[in-house]
Specification:
126 residues, alpha+beta, four-stranded antiparallel β-sheet, 2 helices
Protein backbone atom coordinates (compact mmCIF):
# COMPACT_ATOMS: atom_id res chain seq x y z
CA UNK A 1 0.00 0.00 0.00
CA UNK A 2 1.26 3.48 -0.87
CA UNK A 3 0.47 6.67 1.02
CA UNK A 4 0.96 10.32 0.16
CA UNK A 5 0.60 12.87 2.95
CA UNK A 6 0.74 16.65 2.75
CA UNK A 7 0.30 19.06 5.66
CA UNK A 8 -0.77 22.65 6.23
CA UNK A 9 -1.37 24.83 9.25
CA UNK A 10 -3.37 27.98 9.73
CA UNK A 11 -5.22 29.91 12.39
CA UNK A 12 -9.01 29.97 12.40
CA UNK A 13 -11.70 30.73 14.96
CA UNK A 14 -14.83 29.00 16.17
CA UNK A 15 -17.13 28.69 19.13
CA UNK A 16 -18.89 25.54 20.21
CA UNK A 17 -22.69 25.42 20.13
CA UNK A 18 -23.31 22.52 22.52
CA UNK A 19 -25.11 22.91 25.86
CA UNK A 20 -22.82 24.25 28.59
CA UNK A 21 -19.71 24.67 26.42
CA UNK A 22 -17.82 26.62 29.06
CA UNK A 23 -15.10 28.89 27.66
CA UNK A 24 -15.26 27.03 24.33
CA UNK A 25 -18.64 28.71 23.79
CA UNK A 26 -16.88 32.04 23.22
CA UNK A 27 -15.10 32.88 19.97
CA UNK A 28 -11.53 31.63 20.22
CA UNK A 29 -8.66 30.76 17.88
CA UNK A 30 -6.79 27.57 17.18
CA UNK A 31 -3.70 26.91 15.15
CA UNK A 32 -5.15 24.04 13.14
CA UNK A 33 -2.74 21.56 11.61
CA UNK A 34 -4.18 19.58 8.72
CA UNK A 35 -2.71 16.35 7.36
CA UNK A 36 -4.26 14.97 4.18
CA UNK A 37 -3.33 11.37 3.36
CA UNK A 38 -4.22 9.51 0.18
CA UNK A 39 -3.82 5.73 0.04
CA UNK A 40 -3.45 3.61 -3.10
CA UNK A 41 -2.63 -0.06 -3.65
CA UNK A 42 -0.70 0.81 -6.81
CA UNK A 43 1.03 3.84 -8.27
CA UNK A 44 -0.35 5.52 -11.38
CA UNK A 45 1.43 5.54 -14.74
CA UNK A 46 3.77 8.29 -13.51
CA UNK A 47 4.68 6.55 -10.26
CA UNK A 48 2.35 8.72 -8.12
CA UNK A 49 -0.43 8.10 -5.65
CA UNK A 50 -1.68 11.51 -6.79
CA UNK A 51 -0.10 14.55 -8.42
CA UNK A 52 1.48 16.39 -5.49
CA UNK A 53 1.16 19.71 -7.33
CA UNK A 54 -2.62 19.18 -7.55
CA UNK A 55 -2.71 18.23 -3.85
CA UNK A 56 -0.73 21.35 -2.93
CA UNK A 57 -2.95 23.58 -5.08
CA UNK A 58 -6.08 22.21 -3.42
CA UNK A 59 -4.57 22.68 0.04
CA UNK A 60 -3.52 26.23 -0.83
CA UNK A 61 -7.14 27.01 -1.77
CA UNK A 62 -8.53 25.34 1.35
CA UNK A 63 -6.02 27.10 3.58
CA UNK A 64 -7.06 30.43 2.03
CA UNK A 65 -10.74 29.59 2.66
CA UNK A 66 -10.31 28.72 6.33
CA UNK A 67 -7.39 30.94 7.38
CA UNK A 68 -8.62 33.63 9.81
CA UNK A 69 -12.25 32.58 9.24
CA UNK A 70 -14.89 32.10 11.90
CA UNK A 71 -15.90 28.55 11.08
CA UNK A 72 -19.40 29.08 12.49
CA UNK A 73 -20.09 31.64 9.74
CA UNK A 74 -19.21 29.36 6.82
CA UNK A 75 -22.09 27.71 4.93
CA UNK A 76 -20.68 24.18 5.30
CA UNK A 77 -20.98 24.48 9.09
CA UNK A 78 -24.61 25.67 9.02
CA UNK A 79 -26.57 23.74 11.62
CA UNK A 80 -23.45 21.96 12.90
CA UNK A 81 -21.41 22.33 16.03
CA UNK A 82 -18.02 23.32 14.53
CA UNK A 83 -16.13 20.50 16.21
CA UNK A 84 -12.76 19.37 14.93
CA UNK A 85 -14.47 16.09 13.93
CA UNK A 86 -16.94 17.90 11.67
CA UNK A 87 -14.12 20.07 10.36
CA UNK A 88 -12.12 16.99 9.30
CA UNK A 89 -15.05 15.62 7.29
CA UNK A 90 -15.96 18.94 5.71
CA UNK A 91 -12.34 19.65 4.79
CA UNK A 92 -12.21 16.25 3.10
CA UNK A 93 -15.44 16.96 1.22
CA UNK A 94 -13.91 20.05 -0.37
CA UNK A 95 -10.57 18.32 -0.96
CA UNK A 96 -12.06 15.46 -3.01
CA UNK A 97 -13.98 17.96 -5.12
CA UNK A 98 -10.69 19.66 -6.05
CA UNK A 99 -8.14 16.86 -6.52
CA UNK A 100 -8.18 14.07 -9.11
CA UNK A 101 -7.85 10.92 -7.01
CA UNK A 102 -8.44 8.26 -9.67
CA UNK A 103 -5.94 5.70 -8.35
CA UNK A 104 -6.38 6.39 -4.64
CA UNK A 105 -8.69 4.15 -2.63
CA UNK A 106 -8.90 6.11 0.64
CA UNK A 107 -8.55 9.61 2.01
CA UNK A 108 -7.79 10.45 5.62
CA UNK A 109 -7.96 14.02 6.87
CA UNK A 110 -6.47 14.59 10.32
CA UNK A 111 -6.89 17.98 11.95
CA UNK A 112 -4.89 18.93 15.03
CA UNK A 113 -6.71 21.45 17.19
CA UNK A 114 -3.66 21.95 19.37
CA UNK A 115 -0.50 20.07 20.30
CA UNK A 116 -2.40 17.40 22.24
CA UNK A 117 -5.69 16.84 20.42
CA UNK A 118 -6.72 15.85 16.92
CA UNK A 119 -9.59 14.20 15.10
CA UNK A 120 -9.69 12.53 11.73
CA UNK A 121 -12.15 11.43 9.09
CA UNK A 122 -11.45 8.61 6.68
CA UNK A 123 -13.42 7.80 3.56
CA UNK A 124 -13.27 5.29 0.78
CA UNK A 125 -12.69 6.81 -2.65
CA UNK A 126 -14.13 3.83 -4.55
Amino acid sequence: MYRLSVSRDFIAQHFLTVPNPGPEGEVHSHRFGVDVRLTAPELNEYGYVADIDAVNAALDDLEARYRDALLNDLPEFEGLNPSVEHFARLFGDRFVEAVPTAGATALTVRIHEDDDAWASHERSLR
